[in-house]
Amino acid sequence: MYKLGVSMFGGAPFQNMQDDSCVCTDKEKVRGVYEMWFREVYKAAGVEDAKEKAQELGGKMDGLDGGGRNFGRDTFYKLLKKYDDAIVKVDGRVRMDPPRLKKKKGKKGKGKGKGEL
User: Fold this and answer.
1) Which of 1, 6, 72, 101 is the most exposed place for a label (fewest CB within 10 A)?
2) Chain segment 74-87, per-residue pLDDT in tens
3) Is residue 45 part of a domain?
4) Can you give the residue range of the structural domain that contains 64?
5) Any domain includes 16
6) Average pLDDT over the chain, rounded to whole?
7) Do the Cβ atoms of 35 and 56 come closer than 8 Å?
8) CB under 8 Å, gap of 24 or more: what pairs does 47-56 form?
9) What is the number of structural domains in the chain?
10) pLDDT score, position 110
């Protein structure tokens, strides 16, 4: 029954959250986007030389298939596991009705605070 419910009703909520939170970028810019995310995790965790460490990880993406998307994704996940304190937790756990993410308007100062992911 669970599998049936998820297969019938899980697609739309997943797609809505994916649309709200997905960052689509050109293949040539993938490295820069991941370096930015790596740097933010390092900074939020208080790691010294965050920029240099992020650039070092980004350099490993050069020449990989798809601009290193899989490497970047896997590395980002590993960083979040290692530096769990870099994740700002709200309400202690995910609720049954998580808030929808707001689309970025491109205005500075409107978004997450420093160190939040």
Assistant:
1) 1
2) 999 999 899 988 87
3) yes
4) 25-86
5) no
6) 77
7) no
8) 47/83
9) 1
10) 47
Three-state secondary structure along the chain? CHHHHHHHHCHHHHHHHHHHHCCCCCHHHHHHHHHHHHHHHHHHCCCCCHHHHHHHHHHCCCCCHHHHHHHHHHHHHHHHHHCHHHCCCCCCCCCCCCCCCCCCCCCCCCCCCCCCC
Asked if residue 5 belongs to a domain, the reply is no
Return the biggest CA–CA distance within the chain. 50
- For residue 89, give the 3-state DSSP assignment: coil
* Lowest pLDDT segment from 5-9, 51-55, 56-60: 5-9
> How many residues are given for the chain?
117
Q: Higher pLDDT residue, 112 or 1?
A: 1
Instruction: Tell me whether residue 6 is in a domain.
Output: no
Sign of CA dihedral 79, 40, 55, 65: positive
**Alpha carbon distances (Å) from 80 to 3, 85, 95:** 29, 8, 20
Amino acid at 32: G
